[in-house]
Amino acid sequence: MVERSDRAPLLDWEEIPSAEKDRLSSPSNSRALSGSSSPGFGWSSGPGGPTPSADGCSAPPATSSTPAAGTDEALHPDKGERPSDSGPREVPLEDRMVKWEEKDQIVSVFVVTFNTRSGNMLEWCLPKDMDLEGVEFKAIASGSHRVTTDFIYFRKGCYFGLACFANMPVESTVERGARMKSVGILSPSYTLLYRYMSFLEHQVRLQLQSPGHYSPLEAFYEDKRALLPPSGDGVVTTCPANAWGAAINHSMHPEMKITHPAGCMSQFIRFFGEQIMVLWKLALLRRRILIFSPPPVGVVCYRVYCCCCLANISIPGVGVAVPEFRPFFYVNVADISALENELSYVACTTEKIFEEKKDLYDVYVDNQNVKTYRDGLKPLLRLSTADREKYRKLTEQRQMLLYSQEENGDCVSSEEDLFILFFLEQNNRIFQTLSEVAGSPDPTLTQESVRAMGLDPHGDRLFLLHLLEIYGYDTLLVSEQLCCS
Predict the structure, then answer these.
(1) Sign of the alpha-carbon torsion through 60, 61, 67, 73
(2) Which pTM value belongs to this model?
(3) Do residues 38 and 79 make contact, with C-beta atoms less than 8 angstroms apart?
(4) Residue 302 and residue 315: Cα distance in Å, rounded?
């Protein structure tokens, strides 16, 4: 049994300042429960995930699983409550979700090291019988020896992982002057992994300085491990099915906050510029997108997340028959067989060899350069007039938001919120118009109806034809004016 002294340090990083707790419990952060969010994006194993915050990412819960003294009563008002005379009280949806969100879902914790003779090796893990084959190549990305620190998100079977990497110089000829390790965790969902970023960063530094000292990791696993169902199929429900009703629409935006980046969306926009409109179309068409970049990997995982946000649709029933746009995060050569079976995904890699595997992807993004080897998609890489207009509007809205934040101290709105809602509204506008035209006596797409979608009747004609085919609107007629453009 692990002694209490080993567990105490684990709680320090979990504590959330009272000001943060107040912010998370404010009305502005409860609006995501009104029905404008999805219970999960990709394959989070269960029908739900944590409650999204105002920035469109999952907000950290108001407490950890071990709240500080004196807060338990406030966080759990029904504790010790006596039944009223009117009978059992219906627990609000919000209360049920918050309590479920506090449950930890860690299924494994591990340490990976680089050995000068054998390469990447799994050094230690819990539980001992966990299948972690290949995780050593995910937790230490190819090319990581060039960076000092990094973090990596990845998929391992039906689980998602987060690993923090560090590279420390040492005076050792055996280790060739450098010691490299990575400490990581696995969970059935990526939605809460960011909560453990600080802990993993601290632990990898400890492992570099004092190799073999695993007691804090053992205590962490005992405290946070998930309880797998008796079936033993490795699937953990992230949220009770009855806690997510019809009021919550599926496939809005991914409920993931992969860390607490100060504006990862704004970095994404600045990095790609107008090219995000090209990525938006390809994401909406559910294409396989592979992003290449040398280490560090963490910032590229942000780009995977942002790409997923481009394809949000909240109109019920739309997109049910199309492949899910799945975030794979970091992939390497060991993932080739898995990617071969994927119809739609977005992933990142540091391995240049993937560029030669043209059958694995539809679109290859090399830094800001978006390219494809598929002739049918090449015209989509050109920006239309409508694309430039949408990007101009997005830029203007960002500037207005930044001005409001600077002049008025607006801390409620965020660029993440703006970014997600901008593309959500654009996508909803397209499919709402398509549904209206399909239900009209004359189901023909005209220049006017295409403009009503926010598209260019001439420059976006091919994109529209792909869209009709993929989303099952191929019964719609297309005006000759569009065909003869």
Answers:
(1) positive
(2) 0.74
(3) no
(4) 26
